[in-house]
């Protein structure tokens, strides 16, 4: 190193040392300022509402619920499974359905609130079509009016509907192939198969029964679900 370069380096070191010495009295204030800024940023971060926290909790628990149900061998122990489903929190039941759909590779949208949603507990997209979900934890027979009311909501929103329940389906609805207008009903053995990870056809029949509210509407076409990626249970027909 030349003499001039050495002198220049020494000069720079002296300047840096002088600056450091001059800044030392201000260091506690600078540290306090940065800590205060971090504290203010922490206070101003968006806080989760009680409903958002409940949603997050139910979503996390729904995955554990699904594992537990599959461990029960649903098709061999239907009574045990339905006993569990009818006791679980109704909002967790909704998230269990959505989580199972997500597990199968289906694009889902979870509800943003537990009330004021018009009876919509979630939705998903299949073959480019939107499906709305309504989940009910019944013990006795479901009311046909509830299904038709959900169908009316689906008609207004130009979507198809999936009505999932843990109760009993009236004979009249069973004769209608578990279909009311644009709404497909999933319950009983089909629900057990769904939670067990088996294929469940959700295809709406071309000769779909027409709701009293929507008499005269053109029949709905079939939909088909592509096979899920490797390791996921297949879904046939039109979702679930």
From TrEMBL:
User: GO terms for molecular function, please?
Assistant: endonuclease activity; hydrolase activity
User: Pfam families, per this entry?
Assistant: Mrr_cat
InterPro entries given in the database record: Restrct_endonuc-II-like, Restrct_endonuc_IV_Mrr, tRNA_endonuc-like_dom_sf, Type_IV_Methyl-Rstrct_Enzyme
Q: Where would I find the Restriction endonuclease type IV Mrr domain in this sequence? A: 85-194
| TM region positions | 26-43
Query: Is Ribosomal protein included in the keywords of this UniProt record?
Result: no
According to its UniProt record, this protein's enzyme class is hydrolase
Swiss-Prot/TrEMBL keywords: Endonuclease, Hydrolase, Membrane, Nuclease, Transmembrane, Transmembrane helix
Write the Enzyme Commission number(s) for this entry: 3.1.21.-
PANTHER family in UniProt: MRR RESTRICTION SYSTEM PROTEIN, TYPE IV METHYL-DIRECTED RESTRICTION ENZYME ECOKMRR
Q: Please state what the protein is called.
A: Restriction endonuclease
> Whose protein is this, by species?
Brevundimonas nasdae
């Amino acid at each position: 190193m030349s003499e001039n370069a050495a002198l220049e380096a020494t000069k720079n070191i002296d300047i840096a040392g002088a600056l450091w010495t001059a800044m030392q009295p201000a260091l506690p204030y600078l540290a306090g300022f940065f800590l205060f800024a971090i504290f203010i940023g922490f206070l101003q971060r968006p806080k989760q509402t009680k409903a958002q926290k409940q949603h997050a909790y139910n979503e996390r628990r729904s995955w554990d619920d699904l594992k537990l149900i599959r461990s029960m061998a649903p098709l061999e122990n239907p009574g045990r499974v339905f006993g569990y489903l009818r006791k679980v929190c109704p909002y967790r039941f909704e998230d269990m359905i959505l989580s199972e759909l997500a597990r199968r590779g289906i694009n889902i949208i979870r509800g943003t609130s537990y009330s004021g949603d018009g009876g919509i507990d979630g939705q998903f997209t299949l073959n480019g079509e939107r499906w709305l979900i309504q989940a009910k934890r019944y013990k006795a027979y479901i009311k046909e009016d509830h299904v038709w009311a959900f169908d009316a909501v689906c008609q207004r929103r130009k979507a198809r509907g999936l009505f999932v329940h843990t109760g009993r389906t009236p004979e009249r609805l069973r004769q209608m192939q578990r279909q009311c207008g644009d709404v497909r009903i999933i319950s009983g053995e089909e629900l057990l198969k769904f939670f067990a990870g088996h294929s469940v056809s959700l295809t709406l029949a071309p000769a779909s029964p027409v709701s009293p509210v929507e008499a005269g509407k053109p029949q709905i076409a079939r939909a088909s679900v592509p096979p899920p990626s490797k390791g996921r249970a297949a879904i046939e027909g039109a979702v679930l």
